[in-house]
Structures are given as C-alpha cells and as structure tokens.
Amino acid sequence: MHRFFVPPSWVRGTEVTITGLQAHQITRVLRMQPGDAVIVLDNSGWEIEVRLVTVEPAVVKGEVLHRRLASGEPRTKISLYQGVLKSNRFELVLQKGTELGVVQFVPIIADRCVVSDLDAVERKSQRWEWIIQEAAEQCRRGRKPALHPAVLFPQACEQARHSGGLSLIPWEEERAVSVRDLLRSGAVAPGAGSAELSPSGPARWPPFTIHLFVGPEGGFTVEEITIARRYGLVPVTLGRRILRAETAGLVATTAILYELGDLG
Fold this sequence. Notes:
Layout: E1 3-5, E2 11-12, E3 15-19, H1 20-29, E4 37-41, E5 46-55, E6 59-69, E7 77-83, H2 87-100, E8 104-109, H3 118-122, H4 125-138, E9 146-147, E10 151-152, H5 153-163, E11 166-170, H6 179-185, E12 209-214, H7 222-230, E13 234-236, H8 245-259
Parallel strand pairs: 1-4, 7-8, 7-12, 8-9, 8-10, 11-12, 11-13
Antiparallel strand pairs: 2-3, 3-6, 4-5, 5-6
Helix pairs in contact: 2-4, 2-8, 6-8
C-alpha cells in the first residue's frame, strides 16, 4: 500500500484532503482511482489507512478506515551529526540513515569540510527534506527524521551535551574502545571524554539517546577530538579498516542498533 507523509492539518477527524505533489503522484503517476486505499502519515508515529473518495489532479479526498501505531520506529534514538560532504554523498547518508532508523540529522561544519559556507548548506535543505521524506515513506517509518540547520563543530558538541544521552565520535586514531565493547560494558565513566569504562556505569543503561558524530572527507582533526573530549564525547573505533565519510555513520548506526536490539 502506498504511503504519504502529509501535514497534520490535512487530516480532520475521519476526512483526509491531499493536495500538491502528493495529489499529483496519486493521480498522474500512480493513476489511483476512488476506492483505492493508501496509508497517510501525519508525522505523529501513527499510520492512517485511508480509502480514496475523490481523485482529481488538484485535490484528493478520502475517508479514514483505520489508525494504528507505525512499527518502523526504533527504540534507540540516534542523532547523526554528519560532517557536510559533497552533495551526492551527503544525500546518500540522509537516505540510508533514514532507512536504518536515524531520528535526526545535524549537518556540521568541521575543519576539513569541502563545503564550509553555512548559507550554501541551507540552500540545499529543501531537497534534503524531500529525500528524507521519500526514504521514510519507502521504509515504513512513522516519523520523518528531523533535519536541523547546519552548525559549527563546537556548537554541535555543546548541543549534544545539552541534550543528554551518550555521545560517540568514531575516530581512526582510537584503538582501545570499540562501539561494541562500549555498549556491551554497559558503563561509561563520568566525563566520558576520557573514554574510560566504569563498572558502576550511568544510571540509565542501555542508553536510549545516542549522539553520533562522523567527520567529513579527511575525518576530524586532533584539535577537534580534543574539543570533543572536553564536551564529553567518547572517541571509538569502528575497526581496522578506514571507512569513507559517507560509510562510517551508516556502519556505526547499524552496529549500535544491532547491539541494542533494534535490528535483527
């Protein structure tokens, strides 16, 4: 059954009104007819099954048949702070990260970013939002991951610390602490930037909120890792092989969700 994210205002009681690009897709692309059923998503985490009543190029109307909680949302909430990459590579991260279960994306401007202009990044946000929406519809998400404005690296670190949870920063120079070992140990010492494990651990484990920082092409600098530690981020290794910038975040997300029981 085809799925469409729509503004909440389009769903009123048992009636649904669809316009714009979604109406065009229903009428011109999919050539659906009255009596056909679709899933409407208002970004609340609920799926709304709708039977189409009126199908016209400018407006599609339907009636609500059922409401149910979407089953595609992960328990573990991963925020991916991704260093801005060349356009097609960053779009890949958004698409595949959405499919995996990332709940929000924060583009960050780091020292080695090829693109370092915040305004230039913001001009791409509308296209990025559309990529996220299409991926969320395809993979049966009940919510679209949030796309936040791009921020500088120190601001991103402060933002993560303020939000709480566990903050990880994969780094090719880290050798001692892996994502798997950290999550299986069930503990991080106070001031986790030291990356030391503690048997007592924090009050809440496993962590349901994880901030994952991934660098741009060329990775993070030593100075940025020093800043990250100061803000409580834990450097971790993703293994012996060096991953590309567009691969590392997806691999780390997969490893975290699998280890915490959200995959497989």
